[in-house]
Amino acid sequence: MVWNRQYVIKSYVKSSLWLVPFFAVLVYMVVIRLTRFMGGWLLQTGRINEATAFFGYSMAGARSLLETIVTINLSFIVFTFGSLLVAIQVAGGQYTPRIIATTLLRDNAIRFTVGYFVFTLLFTLRVLTMMGDVVVYQFHCFVAGVLGLISIVVFLYLIDHAARLLRPVSIVQRVGQFGMAVIQDVYPETSKSPHRIESSGNGISPARIVTNTDTSGIVLALDIKGLVRQAQRANGMIEFVPHVGDFIAVDEPLFQLYGGATSIDNLHLRASVALGSERTLEQDPTFAFRILVDIASKALSPAINDPTTAVLAVDQLHRLLRMVGLRHIGNEKICDKTGELRLLFRTPNWEDFVHLACTEIRHYGSGSIQITRRMRSMLDNLIQTLPVHRHSELHQQLQFLDRVIDEHYTLPEDRALARIADPQGLGGSVGVQAATDGTEKVSQ
Fold first, then answer.
1. Please, which residues bridge with residue 92 across strands?
2. Phi and psi dihedrals of 408, rounded to 5?
3. In whole angstroms, what is the distance from residue 69 CA to residue 62 CA?
4. What contacts 33, CB < 8 A, 6 or more positions away?
5. Where are the alpha helices (DSSP H) in 166-239?
6. What is the 8-class DSSP label of residue 327?
7. Phi/psi zone of residue 235: left (φ > 0), alpha (ψ -120 to 50 degrees), beta?
8. What would the pLDDT profile of 281-335 be if each residue is shown by its tens digit?
């Protein structure tokens, strides 16, 4: 199977709710046979007696127990999926639709609890159908009773987990964790001083251009190792034209080939690129920023007006910017073991990340003192903790922030308050002298 199909299948498996319940059916088919074997073995060895085993269920009692377990597990399944649909609608409207596939549908707690409910339901139904008019399968009823009791505990856990999952702080923290992982994966090296980047192909025009002949879509990921191997075998260099996360239409260029790489088959090259309808977090370092900025922008909209949630998003953006600032970023040049350049693919630079994290939030949050204070705290902290070659863009963002404050606030007291760097947004530094204007200060 080609790489891009493997990637699409892998992503689908990670975000599919029905797969775990499907495997629960397979587990049920195995467990019901093991239970039947175990119950028969216990009877044959005389270790239990059907009349007095375990709880000593009567026919009526056993049927009542099994029917109750079937009812509650069916109710749990219906309630879980119904609540999930409501949660998806609320989260998509309250935060951003982009968290549905990246956060909610990939939550293993929800997937495995639904799988457990399906397993318990099928097992109990099977035991109920095995019951005749005389024989009560005591061991099976005991196992079903234990599974039913556990299902109640699992359902209560699911309610608690879902309530915690949908909190703004949980959503932004998860997105932040995903973002940290992809940044470390895409940018494995620590920060270096800026240097001049040579043009692709060392100034030589590409010998051949490979275009996209498949359907239009967003570049989800790239088989970097596979492309390096192909270029090494062909003794050439491959340049990947778009960024991961870019939309690419039919007949737009995918690759530019240099040297011996022109002998590589187009089908093999196109199979190294996964296209889809929605961006993913696996190789797209800016997508986590995009999700957090969307959450903050939605929270700052007049319809929602929740600047505290926006501050939580800025907290995670601060965390991600610090990670990016400590990494070596820019055009990625991948060499083989001999040091020969084999693959060139573009990644966002430092200015791209800073603009993405600050620009829209500054525009939408200019009227919120919480946002101006929290953004100043973020920028000041990054200037103190990141290498010197990262400071220029941060200082520029501070100047933009000051200009927005001057244009928006008419009272000098408000301007002074908005200029205070506060990691809490509002409440952590009241009474401290303003950061940029010594003549404007807030009295205690």
1. none
2. -90, -40
3. 11
4. none
5. 168-186, 224-234
6. B
7. left
8. 888 889 999 999 999 999 998 888 889 999 999 999 999 999 999 988 866 788 8
Rounded Cα–Cα distance for residues 82 and 74 (Å): 12
Supply φ then ψ for residue 21, to 5 degrees. Answer: -60, -35
Which amino acid is located at 190 in the chain? T
Task: Report the distance separating Cα 217 and Cα 60, nearest Å.
Answer: 60
Tens of pLDDT, residues 227-246: 999 999 999 999 999 999 99
Cβ atoms of 371 and 260 closer than 8 Å? no
Give the integer Cα–Cα distance in Å for 314 and 325.
Answer: 16
Amino acid at 22: F
**Residues 262 and 207 sit within 8 Å (Cβ to Cβ):** yes
The total number of residues written for the chain in this structure: 444
Q: Comparing C-alpha atoms, which of 81, 88, 91 is closest to residue 172? A: 91
Q: Regarding beta strands 236-240 and 341-345, do their DSSP bridges make them parallel or antiparallel, or are they unpaired?
A: parallel
Cα distances (angstroms) measured from residue 30 to each of 123, 155, 255, 342: 10, 24, 49, 50
In our burial notation (b when 16+ CB lie closer than 10 A, e otherwise), range 311-345 reads bbbbbbbbbbbbbbbbbebbebebeeeeeebbbbb
Q: Which residue has the higher pLDDT, 132 or 347?
A: 347
Q: Which residue has 């007696």 as its token pair?
A: 49
Q: Which residue has the tokens 């610090």?
A: 322
Q: Determine whether 308 is exposed, middle or buried from the number of CB atoms within 10 Å of its CB (0-12, 13-18, 19+).
A: middle
Q: What is the DSSP letter of 421?
A: -
End-to-end CA distance of the chain: 68
pLDDT tens-digit readout, 155-201? 999 999 888 887 888 888 888 888 898 888 888 888 765 544 444 44
Q: How far apart are CA 282 and CA 158, in angstroms?
A: 27
| CB contact at 8 A, 273 and 222 | yes
pTM: 0.80
Element (H, E) at 247: strand 247-248
175, 316 Cβ separation under 8 angstroms: yes
